[in-house]
Fold:
Amino acid sequence: MSEIINQGDQAILKPGMDVVASMADDFKADLLSIINESSGEVVIDLDGVEMVDSVGIGVIIAAHNTLNQAGRKLKVINVTKDVYGLFTTMRLNRRFTVEGV
Structure:
């Protein structure tokens, strides 16, 4: 279960575990909940996350697309060096903000 923090116009989601296929359904449900219940920027805090697989990337991209259609922003923070490399290789850092640790 992810931790959800509301700070002003930001909603922060902290998965607290690797964002992989085995937890993707719960992660997606938490993200959708945040998107529907907030109106500002959505932040995914990957503190403590060592790995993001293709399913996790897909969930993050889907969240970005949903937010983008509504004129809202997605930010991914506290990204490890390896995961940051994955985001930049896929050029996802050009679609939304990605900040390393």
